[in-house]
Amino acid sequence: MNPIEGLLYFLDRMVRIATKYSSFFGQGVMNTLIIAFFAVLLGTILGTLLAVMKMGKLKPTRWFATAYIEFIRGTPLMIQLMFIFYGLPMAGITFPTVSFIPNFDRFAAGIFAMSINSAAYVAEIVRSGIQAVDKGQTEAARSLGFKQSQTLMMVVLPQAIKNILPALGNEFVTVIKESSIVSIIGIADLMYQTSGVMSVTYIQLETLAVAAIIYFIMTFFTSRLIAFAERKMANGTR
Amino acid sequence: MAQDELIVVKDLNKSFGKLHVLKDVNTTIRKGEVVAVIGPSGSGKSTFLRCLNLLEVPTGGHVFFEGVDICDKKTNIDLHRQKIGMVFQQFNLFNNMTVLQNITAAPVKIRKMDPKAAEEKALQLLDRVGLADKAGSYPAQLSGGQKQRVAIVRALAMEPDVMLFDEPTSALDPEMVGEVLQVMKDLAAEGMTMVVVTHEMSFAREVSSRVIFMADGQIREDRPARDLFADPHDDRLKDFLSKVLNL
User: Fold this and answer.
1) Is B221 helix (H, G, I), strand (E, B) or coil?
2) Of B39, B56, B57, B51, the residue nearest B8 (C-alpha)
């Protein structure tokens, strides 16, 4: 078999796996997107909070935010996930179960771990985005009599978002890929389903190639979507 | 405290770390006065101005605005800032808002003015500075002179008792200085109390009623404009004037 024939053979098996197990992969895509979506959503909220804490005047919260960010960014996500899923219940903190949503506790743990991890990265993105807004904007607002909170909401954040969005888009893409780690705690995400297909078919590389392509499609469309949003926001103002 | 004393500055001191920028500054701004603050760069003019609305927090002394010590930590500075308009060298229009939104934001959000009424008033003010057709534009679409005129209108929309100008024409191309100065002259003619940090000696001489000359963080001379230019006492002032007037 020459290389061309080999490649065609490989592609043929990929197509057959993708079609035969499409509902399997589809289920995985759904779960991956659910996890990534909530992780980014909560991560953004938590991260913004951390950024505000880190830029604030209060020393204890500033110290906490800095320590949190450094620690989370300096340790592997896999270990963080393990500690949250296995460690917290040992400490008496269990994730709730919901009867009509199977594996809710696993999802909760996965999303929680992804969120607190992503929050550390988002915090730095938000902080640098806010600090990139010219100080004169704040001074002008304060000189008119706006309170600090009003200044933040009306003047600084709307402008910071334009600085933040591209990097936040990257973070979303990263979370989609990194979320494959939750398969180790038994969440049926795309990676978990891929392993399932491999163990049924005994076909490794072709199955992994299918998964890689699906991941790529997800991240590619996400980054396109964000580029589109960026263009929308740039309209008029600059 | 006399009725017409709008701002009273008492033993004002300001340090940035080891750098002592303002040293025991004392002066009084009265209603209707147009005070020009001149001096070499680094003399503390801008810092002095920024202490008047607490954008810079003094390290010592007091600033009384309409009888209230605004340096007192218990004073709600936001309330007093509503009455103190400020115009910046770099314009500092809100980039995320249109010209109209820039002007109406404070009256609507802070004064709780009816949005329709605020817009009407903003358009009137814009018309006065010849920019009514720019209401829907964003700051990025305006020239420097236009931006500064909008910035003046934005401050005026809050109906302040005093206007602070921090080198309002220093960042402008030369051909745009005139249009901004004209707006300021009109404002002075209407009786607005103004404190203007400026390098425009013609403005200081012709429009202001009083000139404060600062050097090394101190007020070296504080006299009516005509006297000060005709007969400067201080050596630093003589030196400064000879440099800026004989170009």
Assistant:
1) strand
2) B51
From the list B82, B88, B105, which residue is nearest A139 (CB)? B88
Distance set, CA B18 to CA A178, B39, B214, B215 (Å)? 49, 22, 20, 18
B157 → chain A, closest CA residue? A144
CA distance A49 to B93: 27
Contact residues on chain A for B55, CB-CB shorter than 8 A: 139, 142-143
Alpha-carbon span B93 to B75, nearest angstrom: 27
What's residue A235's pLDDT?
Answer: 60
Report pLDDT digits (tens) over A134-178: 999 999 999 999 999 999 999 998 999 888 888 888 898 999 999
Cβ separation of B158 and A144 shorter than 8 Å? yes
Which ipTM was obtained for this model?
A: 0.92
Q: How far, in Å, are A40, A106, A138 from residue A141 at the CA level? A: 31, 46, 5
Compare all CA atoms of chain B with the CA of A150 and give the residue at the minimum distance: B109
- Rounded CA-CA distance B217/B6 in Å is 22
Cα B38 to Cα B132: distance, rounded to the nearest angstrom: 33
CA dist B220 → B26, B119, B165 (Å)? 11, 44, 20
Q: What pTM did the predictor assign?
A: 0.80
Using CA atoms, how far residue B75 sits from A115, B4, B12, B57, B63, in Å, is 41, 21, 17, 13, 12
pLDDT for residue A93: 84
pLDDT in tens, B172-186: 999 999 999 999 999
> What is the DSSP code string of B178-207?
HHHHHHHHHHHHTT-EEEEE-S-HHHHHHT
Give the phi and the psi of residue A75 in degrees, each rounded to 5.
-125, 150
Q: How confident is the model at residue A237 (pLDDT cuts 50, 70, 90)?
A: low
Q: In what order do the strands lie in the sheet with B5-16?
A: B19-30, B5-16, B60-65, B68-69
Closest to B106 in 3D by CA, of B145, B65, B160, B66: B160
Band of pLDDT at residue A99, cut at 50, 70 and 90 = confident
CB contacts < 8 A, A to B, total 68
Pairwise CA distance, residues B125 & B153, whole Å: 6
Tokens 């707006």 -> residue: B183
Report the C-alpha gap between B151 and B157 in whole angstroms: 10
